[in-house]
Specification:
Helices cover about 85% and strands about 0% of the residues. By secondary structure, the chain is mainly α. Helix 3 runs antiparallel to helix 4 (about 95-105).
Length: about 120
């Protein structure tokens, strides 16, 4: 049974590579597995349940991917803000000039720009 499950996941991975994380990948996986006698009786009895579960897993994976992208974007912006403050200070800009740059370049409010300036300005 475990070897059949492993085969099911291998086939599924191949179908996702071909079609992406879409229902067609699930349905093709089920078709191929039934044709190859992999979990055949289970899939025949519970096809709609398997499709539903797999689609739910897609949704969860998409949420995780979106969160991961969001975190990466936040980190990249934080690094860019830090670099802007450090570069401004290094090249002799005033705190007010850097504050203005942060607000303009990153769309920060006065309060948020001030916090970033305080955080990264070397005393």
């Amino acid at each position: 049974m475990i070897s059949q499950y492993v085969e099911f996941t291998r086939i599924f991975d191949e179908q996702v590579e071909m079609y992406g994380l879409v229902e067609k990948a699930v349905r093709e996986t089920i078709y191929i597995c039934r044709d190859r006698n992999v979990l055949k009786s289970y899939l025949e009895r519970r096809e709609s349940e398997v499709v539903g579960i797999m689609i739910t897993l897609f949704s969860q994976e998409e949420v995780w991917d979106m969160r991961e992208r969001s975190i990466r974007q936040e980190v990249a912006e934080e690094v860019a803000i830090k670099t802007t403050v450090e570069d401004g200070q290094e090249y002799g800009a005033t705190r007010q000039d850097v504050l203005k740059k942060l607000k303009c370049k990153f769309g920060l409010s006065e309060t948020d720009a001030q916090k970033m300036l305080e955080l990264y300005w070397q005393k």
